[in-house]
Design brief:
By secondary structure, the chain is mainly beta. It has a single domain, classed as monomeric porin ompg (Porin), CATH 2.40.160.40. It contains 1 helix and 15 strands. A 14-stranded antiparallel β-barrel has the order 1-2-3-4-5-6-7-8-10-11-12-13-14-15. The radius of gyration is 21 Å and the shape is globular.
Length: 317
């Protein structure tokens, strides 16, 4: 019986790994996008997928700060705050996601509340559905803009703020080694109907697979992320190594834009810090000093009456 169980586990692992390879191939060749990009995306899926949540009895917080293209005046500067938890009494997870983005003379603020609902589809596998609702505020300082035609009727000559509702949907399949998900942001408008006052619809697809004990206490995790608005596309591929679940590091390639080095350390069981540096390989490589990004995350005891100890950090049993 023990041998049969091991055989079934190996077959399941090969199937999920094969799915990951298919997703990777589609990601590279799929037909993106003006939402802010992050190099440590593999730790902040909740930023772009309302279905991504730790299904355990913890309240999880994360803060990410990114300074892009050092050396450019008015270069992009972005901060994220995320909080989420699983609540057994409502059979789902709730979360709050706030993104503050400054780009030149444009300021964007996104606030979104999330709800996720998990469905058990295997012994250790869950399919999670997520919904997000909030708003996006975009402010453009027209006093700093220069126009070829000052009499252009569409010109913004003063500081103007545009406020629009924001809806999102996501889905994620998780098991102890494999994870794949997708989400749609800014359902309020399609690309064809987008305007200066709101962001066009965005699609996100990602997948990862963990190879345990490739060396004593060493785990490898390849990861792929695709972002698209069906007009342009951005593809990120990364490889991280985790040592003893305490230290991690790796590289990430954002095609046509940057090569990133990533390091991280678990200060305590519940406090983790990560840092990444992007070396520009795009058209701005001669002028940019690169990009810096720092992430801090922590977990606190949750609201559930019974302490839940899942088999993996992302599974509720």
């Amino acid at each position: 019986m023990h041998g049969n169980a091991n055989g079934h586990k190996k077959q399941a692992s090969m199937k999920t790994f094969s799915c990951f390879l298919v997703i990777l191939t589609l990601a590279i060749y799929a037909p993106a996008q003006n939402n802010p990009s992050f190099s440590q995306y593999m730790g902040i899926e909740r930023k772009f997928n309302p279905a991504s949540i730790n299904l355990s009895n913890t309240i999880d917080f994360s803060i990410v700060a990114r300074q892009q293209w050092v050396g450019f005046e008015d270069a992009p500067s972005t901060q994220i705050f995320n909080a989420s938890t699983y609540i057994h009494d409502i059979f789902g997870g709730v979360g709050l996601n706030i993104i503050n983005d400054q780009l030149g003379h444009e300021h964007n603020l996104s606030v979104r509340g999330n709800y996720s609902f998990p469905v058990q589809v295997g012994v250790l596998s869950h399919l999670v559905f997520g919904l997000g609702f909030g708003f996006v505020s975009r402010t453009i300082d027209g006093t700093q803009l220069i126009y070829d035609d000052p009499n252009d009727p569409a010109a913004i000559l003063h500081s103007e703020t545009f406020l629009k509702p924001d809806f999102s949907f996501g889905i994620e399949l998780i098991d102890p080694n494999f994870r794949v998900g997708g989400s749609i942001h800014h359902l309020y408008r399609s690309l064809n109907n987008a305007g200066i006052e709101f962001t066009p619809r965005h699609y996100n697809f990602y997948g990862s697979y963990r190879f345990h004990d490739v060396w004593p206490d060493l785990t490898l995790e390849p990861y792929v992320l695709v972002r698209t608005n069906m007009h342009i596309m951005q593809v990120d591929v990364s490889l991280l190594a985790h040592y003893n679940d305490r230290i991690w590091g790796g590289i990430s390639l954002r095609f046509g834009d940057a090569l990133s080095a990533i390091v991280g350390y678990a200060i305590t069981e519940n406090i983790r810090i990560g840092y990444s540096y992007d070396y520009s390989i795009g058209v701005n490589r001669r002028y940019s000093g690169g990009s810096h990004e720092i992430m801090i995350s922590t977990s606190l005891p949750g609201f559930n009456r019974t302490r839940i100890r899942p088999n993996t950090p992302r599974l509720f049993n």
